[in-house]
Predict the 3D structure of the following.
Amino acid sequence: MTLDAQAKGLLDALTAQGMKSFEQMTVPESRETAQAFIGLQGDAEAVGEISDETIAVAGGKIPVRIYRPTGAGPHPVMMYFHGGGFVFGDLGIVDKVCRTWCNAAQAAIVSVGYRKAPEHTFPTAAEDCYAATSWTVENAKRLGLDGQRIAVCGDSAGGNLATVVAMMARDRKGPKIVYQMLVYPVTDVGGDYPSRTENGEGYMLTSAAMKWFIGHYLPNPGDAENAYASPIRGNLKGLPPATVVTAGFDPLRDEGDAYAKALSSAGVAVEHLRNPSMIHGFMWVMGVIGHARGVYDQAGQHLRRAFSARTA
């Protein structure tokens, strides 16, 4: 595998700027640093309409932002849960990302501002994301959305939350999820995989940073055995079809590979989009890594196909 030239250029630029690894930061510093991703995302794509809502969850309220494509509704829906190690990220950081997903999937995107660690530890983020998904279905008609065509999507920690929401929906007989789009997902918080060592330094996300993130999210290490924290350790039968996107120079590569195989072994239809020259987080920096555009387009095709099959 050879590292993509644009990805290498980005890593070299971040090193030259003296960017610290996340485990060397305080939580507020990590959240401030994450804002830099916005400037790496290129121009914001136009979409049909954007609206903001606030929804009630257990113990509080969270924001959601809804992106609608052009054309008449009701639109199929992709619930989007952003990455950020369960610690950072907000609706603003992923605004351009959600616009791109909206156009690629030709679906409404419901971006969820779930509560984060260390202020809100496991399983708060997952419960918030499930509550937002249930709220979307319950309010679909008012929002001009198709509550019968709901997919879940997330990147990194958000990929974990997406597949966990699919599990919760199955276990609780909740909303019918028709598809999972899992982008370099965290699937085994307590696992040990070769890629965590092989790609543990020098590729933006480090193995030490992963431990830092997980330590904030799971103050009780025993929770790593819980399927809603480490979905690969749970029952995967009956989950919706999935696309799993992985990156070759990513500490999370091998657990993404393992999860795709585990889903398939459980009888779940899986499409695995390998990106051997990419680094973790490449879908958030489409303004400087051109490869990301093709992945959005291909993943969007998968989503459109799943939504069309639901109406056939």
Observations:
- Residues 52 and 65 are 4 Å apart (CA to CA).
- The chain has one domain: 5-311.
- The first strand starts at residue 49 and ends at 57.
- Residues 5-311 form a domain with the Rossmann fold fold (CATH 3.40.50.1820).
